[in-house]
Amino acid sequence: MPKSAKKPFIDVLSGERQTIPPVWMMRQAGRYLPEYREVRAKAGGFLDLCFNPELAAEVTLQPIRRFGFDAAIIFSDILVIPYALGRSVRFEVGEGPRLEPLDDPAKVATLAPRADLGKLQPVFDALKIVRGALAPEVALIGFCGAPWTVATYMVAGHGTPDQAPARMMAYRHPEAFSKIIDVLVDSSIEYLLAQLAAGADALQIFDTWAGVLPPTEFARWSTEPTRRIVEGVRAKVPDAKIVGFPRGAGALLPAYVEATGVNGVSIDWTAEPAFIRERVQSKVAVQGNLDPLVLITGGAALDGAVDDVLANFAQGRLIFNLGHGIQPETPIAHVEQMIKRVRG
Description:
Elements: H1 8-13, H2 34-43, H3 46-50, H4 53-67, E1 71-73, H5 80-84, E2 89-92, E3 96-99, H6 105-108, H7 121-133, E4 139-145, H8 147-156, H9 164-172, H10 174-197, E5 202-207, H11 215-236, E6 241-246, H12 253-260, E7 264-266, H13 273-279, E8 285-290, H14 292-297, H15 299-313, E9 318-322, H16 332-343
Helix pairs in contact: 2-4, 4-7, 8-9, 8-10, 9-10, 10-11, 11-12, 15-16
């Protein structure tokens, strides 16, 4: 498909406001879809699905076929980078990811200096399949986890409510923690560049756990590594379109946008609208920020919440999305209701 075709999602990131904002959803290829659950059962384990190019491409395309979203995001996971670094990564049903913890400096010393991108070739193959199948106006998004968020899983060996293990390590052993971050920065740059080469039109950097950091640590462990990734990608692809998602950043967002150079920023549903309009959307595109729980609720509550997002942000550059990923129990009819409301 020609990359030159007009893509509303890319146009917004390039500086053009769209009368009807482009719309997609984080985790749109997932468990709320019966067709996804069928493929998932066929694939075996979660990583087996991520690393099967045909099946990963199929689940990436499912929500596009069903809902006509303006962007597809490649089906993968933020923890493929630790896997490519030679770490043990597995997903336990109902418990989430399990990794071998890097919880002291001696263990950090065993970390490979760079990812083996050959291990991630299935992701690039899936991107090529999806690019060939998408209509020219639909954007294809590649992604990675931000170094801070990926490091939180690597240090603890699993998800925790407040990521205390990584926060403690960053305070106690800043040099060892910096080594993890540096390896993740370099590996993420290479990974994102390979995704662009395979057909991605834009990139998103997910910093799901940015909001647990105090301001000084946020600048050091969230903003600065993201800035280095953006700079590293643009050194090779100067016009690369990149969206940052430092979830829970709140008042720290303007400084994040300024320092990182992202083209757009995803905001969660707790963001204060006037602040975002004046301090963030005046500089970059904003993506968000419907509460995933109101999407489960549906009805008048959903209509009102969609209208609020449009009233707050549609006069500027907006990509309509959720404030985080769609929940598995979300009714499909409510997604249809949301899209109809956005597109009016």
